[in-house]
Amino acid sequence: MDELSRRLVPDELWALVEPLIPPGKTRPQGGGMSRVGDRAVFTAIVFVLTSGCAWRHLPPSFGVTVPTAHRRFTEWTKVGLWRDVHRAVLDKLGGKGMIDWSRAVLDGASVRAKRGAV
């Protein structure tokens, strides 16, 4: 694993994330390509999300193809992985007393507005 990958997903973060990742689907008929490792895919996704680059510009140095990274991003989004990772990180930091909740912000714009009477 190269330096950029270790910076994006250090071992401590991966230890939190790995148990949250759902198991990969297996093909009942067998065969096909071997599955790309979850850490490599997770790291590639983190790169895209934090760098702002387009999926199609994902560098090949991550060892993950664009379709694989995007497909797993979609799969993991559907099962709520990102919410679970967020909670795990908050739990870890909160357990160490590293969160200052006096500066928390609530955003009411993310709540769907109710339709008023016409």
TrEMBL record:
Protein name: Transposase
Organism lineage string: Bacteria, Bacillati, Actinomycetota, Actinomycetes, Pseudonocardiales
InterPro entries reported in the protein's UniProt record: IS402-like_dom (IPR025161), Transposase_6_like (IPR052909)
Domain Insertion element IS402-like stretches: 10-86
